[in-house]
Amino acid sequence: MKILVCVSKSPDTTSKIAFTDGNTKFDEAGVQWIINPYDEWYALVRAIELKEKDPATVIHLVTVGLPDCDPIIRKALALGGDEAIRVNTDSSDSYYIAAQIAEVAKKGAYDLIFTGKETIDYNGSSIGGMVAELVDAPYVSLATLFELNGTTASITREIEGGEEVCEVSLPVVVSCQKGISEQRIPNMRGIMAARTKPLQVVEPASIETLTSIVNYELPPAKAGVKLVSPDNVAELVRLLHEEAKAI
């Protein structure tokens, strides 16, 4: 079985967010970059667990990005990926990224394509569905449980007010979230092995971008907290009527 895991570079959640060039570009100065947690902790680790059950399984990683993504890819290889493919381009357009991944997927004839449910920077949740459409495969989103029986996958996903269990024949595209697997830390053997694992760089296909970012805007600063004595009910009522805002 061949599995393709989509990974992306994201800023660490502790990074200070700022913008440059009139709020049109993300300021990368001093930012620590990590593998997008949904891609690493859930999509990649679930693929590794499947390989542990069937050692003949091959795990390929794909990312769309420039050379500064290479350390991120190497960490994913250290965790358990066998080979990596980096499409040598950079874009914030979801369709463009999905189409580049789909081009790689078509050439690789993969049985499974795993993505994280979203990235923690853009939170678009759109890549998996677009890739599925472009490779003409079924798509199951927000998976919390994935089991494989031969060529049939049983996938549990969250829905409003409960869970839904789907059965689908391979190939399939699945977006993964919390519950499908647990975070792992690469060991020294994996880190050393990752240095020599193949990392293929391919040039992007000629694909039109459909969206562009006009500008960024930080959320308004949080207002200070007002403490009201439990004996001063009248003041609390006044504040709720005059200053509190409905959420």
The biggest sheet, with number of strands, parallel, antiparallel or mixed sense and barrel status, is:
9 strands, mixed
Rg, nearest Å: 21 Å
> With helices defined by DSSP (H or I, 4 residues minimum), what is the helix count?
6
CATH architecture: 3-Layer(aba) Sandwich
How much helix is in the residues? 25-40%
When the domains are counted, the total is 1
Strand order of the largest sheet: 11-10-9-12-8-1-6-7-13
Under the CATH scheme, which class?
Alpha Beta
Q: What keyword list fits this structure?
A:
247 residues, alpha/beta, Rossmann fold, two-stranded antiparallel sheet, 6 helices
Short note summarizing the structure:
The protein is α/β, with parallel strands linked by helices and 247 residues long.
Describe it.
With 247 residues, the protein is of the alpha/beta class. It has one domain (2-218): Rossmann fold. The chain is 28% helix and 28% strand. It has six helices and 13 strands. It has helices spanning 37-53, 70-79, 94-108, 127-135, 188-194, 233-242; strands at residues 2-6, 9-11, 19-20, 25-26, 33-35, 58-65, 83-88, 112-116, 139-149, 152-159, 162-169, 172-176, 199-202. The strands form three sheets. A nine-stranded mixed sheet has the order 11-10-9-12-8-1-6-7-13, sandwiched between helices. Helix 2 links the parallel strand 6 and strand 7 (83-88). The protein is globular and about 70 Å long. The model has no long low-confidence stretch (mean pLDDT 91).
